[in-house]
Design goal:
By secondary structure, this protein is α/β, with parallel strands linked by helices. Helix content is 29%, strand content 23%. It is built from 9 helices and 17 strands. A 10-stranded mixed β-sheet has the order 5-4-3-6-7-8-11-15-16-17. Strands 12-13-14 form a 3-stranded antiparallel β-sheet, with no helix packed on it. A hairpin with a 4-residue loop joins strand 13 and strand 14. The relative contact order is 0.14.
Length: 311
């Protein structure tokens, strides 16, 4: 059943895949069907892998906590003030960063709302760079369209799709029906346990029963435009990336994917290009000088992107 790209517990997925197989005989495009990826069914099209020769690029971020731009050690977001470890608190508003990214043509970054009280700051950033950034954190059907209308290119969703540790396929279907697959990014941020990577939700504190396997990535790829994956165990530590995870994603992710976690130097962009086979982009947070870091100069990542501009 693995190559079918659907769950046996989700009968509606069988109908969708079968329809893609049949209708695709008469239309262009690609789909994930009975024999893997085929050139059928434009309506069922899932973006394919980026050519291996394409270099990775830097994707910017704006992490919001209590309405301020911050850099936080990911694994400490437990909800208890005594556990929280903060690397940086900016004196500048969120829109300053969005305007900076817009000036330098850095598209596809993400605004992440870490907890409540961040909605206004998020909307200010989106308004400063319309259709230039994605937004995530507490996204659900009641507010998804609101953020898109506020300027988000995509909404990023995790916790709402995972219920009781499992993917709620009905919820995922309803969200896609509402905003369209091309507006959705699935956040599959993960932590390692028993030599596997498991999606974590609720500020990266709760393990789900969904691991990052080639089958599971293909299964979700038909519902969204991109994946965002924070390596929560190393996020905010500036102690080095999870190279094994980057290599795994480069080999198996069927969609454009942004990796975040542990990056500390410009050389990491080159490493992600190689290990990720040119299919994975990189976000650098705490190590970046605009977030108080000393490992990477912002002007250098802008120059990197310009040197490796995609055509």
């Amino acid at each position: 059943m693995e190559c079918l790209g659907f769950s046996p517990s989700d009968p509606s997925a069988f109908i969708r895949v079968y329809w893609c197989s049949f209708a695709g005989l008469f239309f262009g495009g690609s789909y994930v069907g009975f024999w893997g990826r085929r050139s059928y069914g434009k309506a069922c099209q899932a973006p394919g892998l980026r050519p291996k020769s394409t270099p990775s690029v830097f994707r910017p971020c704006i992490d919001l906590h209590e309405g301020k731009v911050k850099q936080i050690v990911g694994g400490t977001l437990s909800g208890r003030a005594e556990d929280l470890r903060t690397n940086f608190v900016s004196e500048r508003p969120s829109r300053w960063y969005a305007e900076l990214y817009r000036r330098d043509g850095l598209r596809g970054g993400h605004v992440i709302m870490l907890g409540t009280g961040n909605e206004q700051a998020a909307c200010e950033a989106l308004a400063a760079y319309p259709d230039g950034m994605q937004v995530g954190g507490g996204i659900h059907p009641d507010n998804a369209r609101q953020f898109i209308e506020a300027g988000a290119s995509h909404v990023i969703v995790t916790s709402w799709v995972f219920r009781e540790g499992r993917v709620d396929w009905d919820r995922l279907e309803s969200l896609v029906s509402m905003i369209g697959r091309n507006r959705l990014v699935l956040d599959l941020s993960c932590r390692r346990r028993d030599n596997e990577y498991w999606v974590v939700t609720d500020r990266w504190q709760k393990f789900t029963q969904f691991n990052l396997s080639p089958k599971n990535l293909r299964q979700l790829a038909v519902y969204c435009d991109e994946f965002l994956i924070h390596a929560a165990d190393v996020e905010g530590l500036c102690g080095g990336m999870d190279m094994e995870l980057v290599a795994f994603l480069g080999m198996h992710s069927p969609l454009p994917t942004t990796y975040a976690g542990g990056a500390r130097s410009l050389a990491d962009l080159e490493a992600v290009t190689e290990l990720g086979q040119g299919r994975i982009d990189l976000t650098i947070g705490s190590a970046l000088d605009i977030f108080g870091g000393t490992g990477v100069r912002y002007e250098d990542v802008v120059a990197f992107n310009r040197r490796h501009a995609r055509t």
